[in-house]
Amino acid sequence: MPRWTFEDLTVGLRLECAPHAMTREEMIAFAKEYDAQPFHIDEDAAKASFFGGLVASGWHTASLVMRAIAERFLLDSSGLGAPGVDELKWLRPVRAGDVITPVIDIIDRKESRSRPEMGLVRMRITTSNQRGEPVMTQENWVMFGRRAQAM
Q1: How far is residue 130's CA from residue 80's CA, in Å, rounded to a whole number?
Q2: 32-74: per-residue pLDDT in tens?
Q3: CA 4/CA 38 separation, integer angstroms
Q4: How far is residue 116's CA from residue 20's CA, in Å, rounded to a whole number?
């Protein structure tokens, strides 16, 4: 049986994920593959940009956060997927040497009216750097199986 089911994810629950130290090499490699804007892949161009230096792609940060959430609890849950992301904000640039840590807060939950075997959980994920400054926030609903169905 999974460790986390709908019943375990109550409003007020907070889960801290493992930190991740960003490296210049991984930032550039991700950006070359998925988001090849100059301020993500070229240090000289990045210095001349609005950012004043190389920054990670926001999609790189979002991908790392997804992995951290999966490792922290989704892979050991009755998770059934999500209907989408309601809000995703990049608040500060992430740079090489930054250590980012996502924190998940359960902010709402409801039983499904049409599918009694599942419930929906609303999460707010705040990812902060090593100085405690938020760099990204995300809010969305995730579907989870009920404990009786997970057995």
Answers
A1: 32
A2: 999 999 999 999 999 999 999 999 999 999 999 999 999 999 9
A3: 41
A4: 37
Contact 96, 27 (CB under 8 A): yes
| Token pair of 103 as six digits | 């924190």
Domains of the chain: 6-150 (3.10.129.10)
Read off the pLDDT band of 80 (50, 70, 90).
very high
Full 3-state SS string of the chain: CCCECHHHCCCCCEEECCCEECCHHHHHHHHHHHCCCHHHHCHHHHHCCCCCCCCCCHHHHHHHHHHHHHHHCHHHECEEECCCCCEEEECCCCCCCCEEEEEEEEEEEEECCCCCCEEEEEEEEEEECCCCCEEEEEEEEEEEECHHHHC
